[in-house]
Amino acid sequence: MASAARIPPIQCLLTFEALARLRSVTQAAEELCVTPSAVSHRVKQLEQIIGTKLFGRADFSLTTEGSEYLAHVREGLATLQKFPGTAGHSATPGKRKLRLAVTPTFARSILIPRLRQFTDAYPEIDLILQVSIPLLDVVAEDTDLIVRFGTGRYADLEHVCLLEDEVAPLASPAYIREHGPFETAEDLEGESLLRSPLEPWRTWFSAHYLSWPEPVDGSQFNDIGLMCDAAAAGMGIGLVRLKLGAPWLENGSLVRLGNNEVFATNTPSPHAHYLCWRTGTMDRWECAAFSDWLRESLG
The domain that contains 75 carries what CATH number? Predict the structure, then answer.
């Protein structure tokens, strides 16, 4: 059995968890009903007891050891919240459910390739993923956290910017061989421009001093991934967000139209991906843990 001298005081553990979640000494102090200096002292005491630094910078981001220890602390606190006589009579803490609504191509291109890092770090959390396209009012019900793509003006939700991106016209190599070469922006006139309300062409037109109206003809998609698949199949030219389009660019099924300045230069997208939640959601540690992990994972 481990020596009790090596088990940190519960107040130190509660303070560490609160500070890691809230990233604010003041807010942690308010939640725990102690002074800010008490928060600082407890964290220093914990670091001395376990012999490692838990927080790396002034913004209270965790060190590698801090992240690893936080998972153990949260698992231990969850176990201590299980009282005798409660449902199941089990000493093993039940898994925490975290419901996430996420846009389809962000899920495929950005989230899923990274997600095992989170599930490995937090085996006590079960993720429930649902597809959502909030810009088109295709929304998932009863979710804890929502990834939205848009302007960031969400008066009904708290939110933080996750990912900004740039756009560029992309097409399949076969399409470019058949319809190219593309040397000027005007060379897109008369071409099959694939459309999506999620990424209007006027962004790119305006950046290249074209007064063309938004295309009204041609195939239209409410999912960027489907539009990328269509462009890769040779159906036309898609205006694609490059971080979302990375899988198609990396496997060569989509390429830029040319190497000159017109087509090698990216145009900032007016929209971005945001993580959104209702007030109070971040009081649940599993939601705060996912938010912190996702933001750090995306840099």
Answer: 1.10.10.10
Q: Which two tokens stand for residue 173?
A: 């190599």
| Mean pLDDT, all residues of the chain | 86
Q: What's the predicted TM-score (pTM) here?
A: 0.66
117-129 average pLDDT score: 87
Per-residue three-class SS string for 261-289 = HHHHCCEEEEEEEEEEECCCHHHCHHHHH
List helix spans (H) across the chain: 10-22, 25-32, 36-50, 64-80, 104-106, 112-121, 173-179, 202-207, 224-232, 246-250, 261-264, 285-297
Alpha-carbon torsion (62, 67, 73, 77), positive or negative: positive
Question: If you search the block for the tokens 């840099």, which residue do you land on?
Answer: 299
**Contact indicator for 277, 146 with CB cutoff of 8 Å:** yes
- 254 in a domain, yes or no? yes
CB atoms within 10 A of CB 246: 15
Instruction: Evaluate whether 232 touches 253 at the Cβ level (below 8 Å).
Output: yes
Residue 131 is part of a domain; what is its CATH number? 3.40.190.10
Angstrom distance (rounded) from CA 223 to CA 101: 15
Size of the chain in residues = 299
Give the separation between CA 124 and CA 294, rounded to whole angstroms: 17
Residues in CB range of 194: below 8 A, 6 or more apart: 218, 219, 220, 221, 227, 230, 231, 235, 236, 237, 238, 239
Q: Domain limits at 215?
A: 165-267
